[in-house]
Amino acid sequence: MENLRKGFPVLEQYTYLNTAASGLLPEAVWEFRQNHDLDFLLGASVFKEKQAEALTETRELVGEVFKCAPARVALVPNFSFGISTLLEGLDKHPKALLLKNDYPSLNWAVTSRNFEIEYAEINENLEENIAEAFKKQQPDFFAFSIVQYLNGIKIDLGFVNKLKQEYPHTLFIADATQYCGTEEFNFEESGLDVLICSTYKWLNAGYGNAFMLFKKEMENRISPKTLGFGSLRGKYKAHEGNFIGKFEPGHQDTLNYGSLAEALKLIKKNGIKEISARIESLSNKAKSEFTEMDLLEESVVNRKTHSSIFNIKGGEKLFRHLQSKNIITSMRGGGVRVSFHYFNTEEELHFLLKQLREFGV
């Protein structure tokens, strides 16, 4: 486990249980960023002429890690830009299905447009609620987070695959910001049509970078309106009318997208299977302990599988108490949200539990 903690100096001073809010910046990414800007300082346009190569490397790494052809990987600055560009490319009056109280940046993007919207409840019967909503009124698109930011409920991706087979004409659009980087994922074999992920959380890539993955047929289903000089530059975009180029209309930031490439190299080095096993082990232990202490909502307790994000009962005083012990968490939805990544340890979980008991929760 110590090998997985190396390169994250924040862990030397904090018990960091807050990846669901902001991932850590690995030393490997920091070193890349220092060298990148030094090269820019000394080389200016000579250095920037290599921009296309750098972006191609990032695009290909994203495709390799998440099993999607590079020509269908778009590099975008953040989730909100990606989802807004996508929605502007849809028919003006489609029927949409959302999850009630899903991540605001996802739901707001949909509700701010002239769509006909239905909702499914997020609880222990999440999949059944979604299936019923589909039967009631088949949506033109279903937009949802794979993992819920408030309480960590994770949708069953096997269920999504089956639902897509039953409703092949519905677009399945997933926010994977709280998911990618936690377990192995094959986009091509999934039931998703579009995946969007900001990478500053579980991928530890810093801010200002995100990516989108598309199934091939999306070129005929989505018509983005954006276009700029950057839309036609690069190995996978150098032809007029290029689909992914319409999600990349301007100059691309090689500092931020290069940071994503370095973060993905670190994931490959550590091994996504090893990362997933560490996270799953910590999640199972945490859920068992939190359940025994009656700290979780019933909808989480009653789920068979869960992510590594938990919202435990407690308010501002508990949050401040944990903060005084250098345990970093977030206040979310009236509770204290904790999240465990692969660099966290059982010792840190036990330290958290000790502080919760001493506080008297």
Automatic annotation (TrEMBL):
SUPFAM superfamilies in the cross-refs: PLP-dependent transferases
GO molecular function: transaminase activity
Domain of life from the UniProt record: Bacteria
Record keywords: Aminotransferase, Pyridoxal phosphate, Transferase
Xref: InterPro entries: Aminotrans_V_dom (IPR000192), PyrdxlP-dep_Trfase (IPR015424), PyrdxlP-dep_Trfase_major (IPR015421), PyrdxlP-dep_Trfase_small (IPR015422)
Pfam families linked: Aminotran_5
Keyword Transferase recorded: yes
Limits of the Aminotransferase class V domain: 16-349
Signal sequence, start to end: none
Transcription regulation keyword on record: no
PANTHER family: BLR3095 PROTEIN (PTHR43586:SF15), CYSTEINE DESULFURASE (PTHR43586)
Protein name in the entry: Aminotransferase class V-fold PLP-dependent enzyme
Organism: Salegentibacter maritimus
